[in-house]
Amino acid sequence: MYAYFIDDWVYNRKHHRQMDKLDLGLTQNGISGRKFKLGRLHNIERSIEECFSTGIKTFVAVGNDETASKLLNSLLKGEEDKKKKEENQKFTFAVIPVDDSSQCIASSLGSKSLQEAIKFLAVHKTNKIDVGLINNRHYFITAAVFPKDSSLSFQSYTVSSLKSGHHISVCNSNIYKKLDIKDKKTRFDIRDGLFDAVIAYHPDLSLMEKLRSSKASIDAFIPESIFPIKDITIKNKQKTISIFADTDKQMSTPVHLEVVPSLLSVVVGHDL
Prior knowledge:
Helix content: 10-25%
Largest sheet: 10 strands, mixed
Radius of gyration: 19 Å
Distance between the termini: 24 Å
Mean pLDDT: 86
Number of strands: 16
Order of helices and strands: EHEHEHHEHHEEEEEEEHEEEEE
C-alpha cells in the first residue's frame, strides 16, 4: 500500500499537466494510494501514524528535495523510541520529482523525471542506503553544504581552504558535475557506510557569490580535497550558520555530522 505526500505548490496551475500524468501513471500501474497535501498547517506526523495503523509501508514524496526532506525527517522523528524505531525500519521511502529545480535526491536514487519515478515505483526495486545525521536532529540523503570560513575539525587538527571562493560539504552522493569519479566504488558510494568530506572552490565567482558561496552555483565548484569519514565536526566563527542539507537549515556551531549506515530502504531506478 502506498501513501503520497504531495507538496502544496504542486497543485498550482503551472503543474496541472504533471498532476494529470501523476494520476494517470499511478492508475495505469496499479499503485494508487492515499494522498496527502502538504500545506503549511498539515500535521504530517499524524498522517504518518494513520498510514502505519492502516498497513501502509511505502511513503512517497511528490515535489522536490525540500518535500522529500520534510517527509524523510518526519518519518525518522522519534527514533529514540525503540518500539517506534523497529516499526519504522520496515517502511520504504520513494521520491517522485515534479518540476526541474532542486531534484538531487530523486536523481541520486535514479529518477530523472516523474514518468521514470512512477515506473520504478511500480517495479519496486529497493536498496538500503546510508543517511546523514546533523547535530542529532536533522537527516539528509545527498549532502550537507557549508558556507565559506568553515573548516573540517579532526581529532588534533583542522582543515580549510586558502582560496577565497570556497565551501565545505559532507557528501553521501556526488553533487559536483565537474568531478570525474574514476573509481565509484571508493567514493560517493551511498551504501558504503562512509561519507566524503569535500573542500571545493569556485574559480570564477562574482564578488557577491564569493561572499555567499551559495548552493545555487555548486555545479561549478571544483573539489580540491576529499576525506572519507564516518563522523566529522564542522567549525565556523559564526554561532549560527546556514546549511544546505537537502533543504536549507539554520544550525548552531560547531556542527557534528555522522553517518547512519543502511538506515533507509528506498525505491531505486538502478543498481547503487
